[in-house]
């Protein structure tokens, strides 16, 4: 099966400012695609163009081969959450969902199902959105996006405001949604959120895509051949000398050592030297470094 | 992607019927406190104003007709209905729900048309309520005073309905143009109350302005509807001033909403 979401050559100018620069990507069914970038990188603008809320300067975005506006009753096919706070503060959570269900022509029982799915209880559903925390608004927004049982989800910063338990819940929800064949595109400015949920990542900075791929390939690209391993032994000094004896670069790091070699190489050296290992793992800080490096000229804080 | 296996099968989905959009928009008018209370306030004030007319006329032993009761109600609702019309549009922008509305129905003209339909329906419901309240008050007047005057022509009922719809759509048009509740209300009242005064003063000071002003004073032109039959010139005044104050803002406003970036 081919890509469900197809974005090609998308460009958006605001006056002289180019918010999105020739962005092209695609999202496949059964996968969660993470759209990652710092604030103001163009993630939201791209997503807004995808659902027709913002006109593109050039390029196009299609979902299932159609422009969003050409999809009949689009809520039944594409679940959209662009801003959880964009709800009438004076409506109750239940009323917000009920309006959505009525517009899409769904039975109102669907509202109760979705409230249960996002764990908003009866009391909370009767409260006005004005009195909702950001986390509750996100849950309501996710419920709204899922109302029409869509095959595609487009979520902008869905984890924003969720507590750690909420983020874990959402991860499970989106993973199982993708496993059932759904297509998910979600954005975030937080690497940790995305790397846990997404099968594939698209890194964007200053309106441009700077890198893409799954976590492994992104890490490999970041390492550029130089692999780093963290290791802790009962006797770090003895292990360090054994490693250095093999010509490897060793530095102390926290309670253990930082070695510029594959984990298997370090393990073998420890075996040969008869050292007991407590901890051995490949360094994964690379992804964060990569993220900051790739988007560095778009960061407000200089590294 | 091959043509035989569409990645998104929409063949079984029909577009949202227009009647459903109208029902949802009607519901949106009343499902917030602001909307519900505005509607209740309109009904309550119609009752209040007609009750005052009833009490004053009975106490002072003055003649009053069915026409007078509906006239009093019409004056009042023509002030309040436009606010309802304004809120139909502007609350979507101030509360940012337009993002959700236009994501569920990206064909924006249909949403705008549904909202305008709700506006017209509400204006007509208001006319019916005003007539009903007027009828009850006139019955009470007859009971208390002896002889009720039921003189009321179909012409003035139609004029009543037409001016209420114009009033509602005037607010609606301004709201699509300004997309902001307070600004729309202020501009609407300026256009409804301040302009006629300007025309009156201008007409008194300069005679040429009087004949010129007739073509622009939409409120004065609408008043002629209550005094049929209208002359050709009066119809022309109504059409020209209506184009200037209703059609042009409506067209520009709808054009704006269709093109606007929904934030």
Shape of chain B: globular
Strand order of the largest sheet of chain A: 5-6-7-3-8-9
**In this structure, how is the largest beta sheet of chain A organized?**
6 strands, mixed
Number of domains of chain B: 1
| Unreliable spans of chain A | none
Topology, please?
The complex is a heterodimer of chains A (303) and B (263).
Chain A: E1 5-14, E2 17-27, E3 32-36, H1 43-50, E4 58-63, E5 78-81, H2 93-104, H3 109-117, H4 122-125, H5 134-146, E6 152-156, H6 164-179, E7 183-188, H7 191-197, E8 200-205, E9 208-213, H8 215-223, E10 229-233, H9 236-245, E11 250-253, E12 256-259, H10 263-273, E13 277-282, H11 286-294
Parallel strand pairs in A: 3-7, 3-8, 5-6, 6-7
Antiparallel strand pairs in A: 1-2, 1-4, 8-9, 10-12, 10-13, 11-12
Helix pairs in contact in A: 2-3, 2-5, 3-5, 8-11, 9-10
Chain B: H1 18-30, H2 33-59, H3 66-94, H4 98-104, H5 108-145, H6 154-178, H7 181-205, H8 207-213, H9 218-223, H10 232-259
Walk me through what this model shows.
Chain A folds into 2 domains: 5-213, Rossmann fold, CATH 3.40.50; 228-282, Alpha-Beta Plaits. Helices cover 36% and strands 26% of the residues of chain A. Chain A contains 11 helices and 13 strands. In chain A, strand 11 (250-253) and strand 12 form a beta hairpin. In chain A, helix 8 (215-223) packs across helix 11. The model of chain A has no long low-confidence stretch (mean pLDDT 89). Chain B has one domain (18-256). Chain B is 78% helix and 0% strand. Chain B has helices at residues 18-30, 33-59, 66-94, 98-104, 108-145, 154-178, 181-205, 207-213, 218-223, 232-259. The longest helix of chain B is centred in the middle third of the chain and has 38 residues, at 108-145. Chain B is globular. The model of chain B is unreliable at 1-5 (pLDDT under 50). Chain A binds chain B through residues 1-4, 29, 48, 51-55, 63-66, 68-69, 71-77, 80, 82-83, 85-91, 95, 99-100, 102-105, 144, 151-152, and chain B through 1-2, 5-10, 13-16, 20-21, 23-24, 27-28, 31-34, 91, 95-97, 99-100, 102-107, 259, 261-262.
């Amino acid at each position: 099966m081919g890509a469900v979401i197809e974005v090609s050559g998308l460009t958006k100018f605001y006056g002289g400012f180019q918010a999105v620069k020739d962005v092209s990507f695609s999202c496949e069914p059964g996968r969660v695609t993470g759209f990652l970038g710092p604030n103001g990188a163009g993630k939201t603008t791209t997503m807004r163009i995808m659902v027709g809320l913002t006109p593109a300067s050039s390029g196009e975005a299609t979902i299932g081969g159609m422009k969003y506006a050409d999809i009949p009753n689009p809520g039944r096919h594409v679940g959209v959450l662009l801003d959880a706070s964009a709800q009438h503060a004076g409506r109750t959570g239940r009323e917000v969902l009920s309006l959505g269900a009525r517009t899409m022509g769904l039975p109102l029982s669907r509202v109760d199902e979705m409230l249960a799915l996002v764990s908003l209880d009866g009391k909370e559903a009767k409260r006005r959105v004005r009195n909702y925390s950001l986390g509750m608004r996100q849950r309501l927004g996710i419920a709204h996006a899922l109302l029409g049982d869509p095959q595609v989800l487009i979520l902008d910063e869905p984890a924003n405001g969720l507590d750690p338990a909420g983020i874990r819940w959402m991860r499970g929800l989106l993973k199982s949604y993708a496993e059932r064949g759904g297509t998910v595109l979600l954005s975030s400015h937080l690497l940790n959120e995305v790397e846990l949920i997404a099968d594939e990542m698209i890194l964007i900075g200053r309106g441009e895509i700077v890198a893409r791929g799954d976590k492994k390939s992104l890490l490999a690209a970041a390492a550029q051949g130089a692999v780093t391993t963290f290791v802790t032994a009962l006797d770090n000094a003895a292990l360090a000398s054994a490693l250095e004896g093999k010509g490897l670069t060793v530095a102390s790091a926290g309670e253990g050592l930082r070695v510029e070699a594959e984990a298997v190489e370090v393990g073998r050296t420890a075996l040969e030297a008869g050292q007991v290992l407590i901890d051995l793992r490949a360094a994964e800080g690379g992804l964060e470094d990569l993220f900051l490096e790739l988007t560095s000229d778009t960061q407000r804080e200089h590294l | 992607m091959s043509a035989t296996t569409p990645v998104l099968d929409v063949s079984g989905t029909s577009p949202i019927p227009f009647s459903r959009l109208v029902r949802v928009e009607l519901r949106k008018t009343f499902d917030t406190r602001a909307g519900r209370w505005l509607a209740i306030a309109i009904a309550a004030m119609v009752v209040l104003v007609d009750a005052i007319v009833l009490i004053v006329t009975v106490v002072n032993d003055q003649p009053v007709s069915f026409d007078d009761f509906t006239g009093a109600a019409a004056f009042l609702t023509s002030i309040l209905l436009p606010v309802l019309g304004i809120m139909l549009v502007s609350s979507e922008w101030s509360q940012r729900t337009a993002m959700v509305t236009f994501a569920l129905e990206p064909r924006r003209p249909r949403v705008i048309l549904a909202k305008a339909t709700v506006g017209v329906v509400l204006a007509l419901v208001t006319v019916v309520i005003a007539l009903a309240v007027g009828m009850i008050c006139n019955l009470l007047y007859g009971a208390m005073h002896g002889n009720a005057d039921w003189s009321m022509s179909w012409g003035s009922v139609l004029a009543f309905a037409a001016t209420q719809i114009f009033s509602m759509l005037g607010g609606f048009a301004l709201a699509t143009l300004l997309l902001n509740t307070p600004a729309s209300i202020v501009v609407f009242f300026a256009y409804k109350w301040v302009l006629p005064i300007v025309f009156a003063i201008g007409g008194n000071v300069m005679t040429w302005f009087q004949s010129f002003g007739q073509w622009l004073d939409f409120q004065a032109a609408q008043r002629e509807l209550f005094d049929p039959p209208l002359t050709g010139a009066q119809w022309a005044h109504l059409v020209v001033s209506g184009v200037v104050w209703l059609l042009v803002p409506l067209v520009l406003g709808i054009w704006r909403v269709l093109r606007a970036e929904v934030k």
